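#data-curation
PF: Archiving a pair of folding outputs for the training set. Convention for this channel: one message per protein, sequence first, structure tokens after, nothing in between. First:
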Amino acid sequence: MIVIELRRAAGRAIRALTALCLVVLVQSAAHAETKVQLGLIGKWAPYAAVYLAEDLGYYKEAGLSVEITTYRGGGAAQQALAAGEADIINFTPPGVALAVNKGVKEKIVGPGMPTALGWHCVVLKDSPIASPKDLAGKKVGITRKGSTTDFLALKVADRAGVSIDTIPVGWGSLIPSLKAKEVDAICIDSTLASKLLLSGEGRSVVDLGKDLEPTLPDVWVASQSLIDDKPEVVEAWLKAMYKATAHLKANREFGLKYLKEYTEIEDDRVVEREYDIVIQGRSTAAKIPREWLESSLTLATLAGLEDLPSIDEIYTDRFESVIAE
């Protein structure tokens, strides 16, 4: 009898253990996360929502495991996507057009922001340059040829009907080059512009975010293989990111605190400017009007780029219904 009871107990234990294993396997399958390789250019203020989506658990809710890699410039991020080391990157429409022309399989899937919010063409406070027309024949500092700063500087000159000489100095040397008067003006992003304008050392000649039409300074780009094979992953990532963006925009006190910690900017005035201008202007929906893309590609032609692909070759409207929930 004792032997029989021991056998029965052992049988019950085995069945219980088997059931437990099955539960674990089912739960593991239910919580399996799809890995997404995301390529960014440093910890730029507009990217705050990308990290916030992780912190708030939005990626996990969407069944995603997002690994973020920072690259030294958009070109490096583009190379990573082309090599299969990144699934989604932040880039520019002209940059995507050049990549597609070279055979890279990718498409724009959503906007970052419509215009270069907070970006300015800046001169020193005592500069005689008072308007875009005064830039005629002047040296304008940019990060590099073919960059957003290059495109925007050329757009300013084109609208003013003048010619300028764009001088690539690198991001870290933009302000030093201006102060040393090696260039007459610089086209700079929101953070650098805020530092110069708030300190009184610089003066804006053109507010690139307000004075220019939408030209999409940054867009979200996915590999064609991800779009084709796992469109639900692209959609899930966009929803999570735009949801985090909406959360930032709707909660100012929280947003200011998060932005300060994320960017490590010490000057609260700069943080407030970044939040009120840049964060508040970030997109929370994936749809892109075609005229915005057309304007962006026009910037590329100003830089001498020719034989650009059509909009349909660089953009897919497959995800245009995605909005922040």
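PF: Second:
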Amino acid sequence: MGEAFRPGHRLVGVAAALLLTAGCAQSPAVATLPRAAGTAACTNAQVLAGWTLTRLAKQTLVVPVQETDVAAVAPEVAVGIGGVLLFGSSAPATLGSDLASLKAKAFAGITPFVMSDEEGGAVQRMANLVGTIPSARTMGATMTSTEIRALARRVGGRMHSAGVTMDLAPVLDLDGRAGPNSTDAIGTRSFGTDPHTAAVDGLAFSGGLREASVIPVAKHFPGIGSATANTDVGPAATPPWSTLQTRDLLPFRSAVAVAIPAIMVSNASVPGLTPRPAGMSPAVITRVLRGDLHFHGLILTDSLSAGAVSGYGYTVPRAAVTALAAGADMLLFTASASAVAVVTQAIVDAVVAAVAAGTITPIRLQNAVRHILTAKHVDLCA
């Protein structure tokens, strides 16, 4: 069993350790350029104001690719795409060198995030390279938070060695049901139904990743463990907002408190807060996550190709525009290898047109990229 939660003990320990390791994420060595006395200090925000809308839009995109053929997205990386998401179930032994070659093509030297879903249990992309991870439910029931952290550090080290820089984990949703399945997206992907235990164990997992220089992403804000359906399949709703605030939201509050670097927002609607998918809602992102919780890190959407999004009436480009306008920073989608370039261009065109039409302000788009570059430890002034 996971250790019993004691206020001021496990959570504070995890928080302290995470804060101490916050600077461990991989960052390029940068030199500070000398500046003339009396001149204003250069900032990323100032530089981004000079980027074209097209370049800004491309940096917000995460393109999908099979881990057995990462070179397929070399054209997207070469024009400045912000991230690459690996799909598959068995990574090639050459993944590290394949990804190094891909990153070498990055536009202006700003390498994309390389993301994978290494949660454990039913959700792993590269177990053959990093080792098999128990499900979150099994970890929560059989391991202490210290053991969970050590496991994540070991797995994260292998991910980092293979060139993967971001793990779309931990899952902080609360769920005791039998999923994941067609009606329940979470199930055994959850550390448990107790918000305190889920917070401590989930943040132990994220802490281990950070110590291995892999960026963790807490998901799926504000909690879909009790959603009415699987958002991958079709529209779904969480319990009422008043209920989420007293239960499902608590692990995410803890994650924000220890400055987790990235959070993924769900595609479920939240009665009493938003009728649309949460990742496209300014009430969820701008009002609650940025405003009430004071989260300053990177915000990612869940897949904009999901059934919950199309079922609400959105195309992927329209969903991308809506999500950016609502406050999201990075846009995820799925597509066949032959369709990636087409979908990517359609999203970029839609975002640029939305800025021209006033649907997205230039500052909102620049701020999205600023959050991305901060998470990448990129200093445009260096």
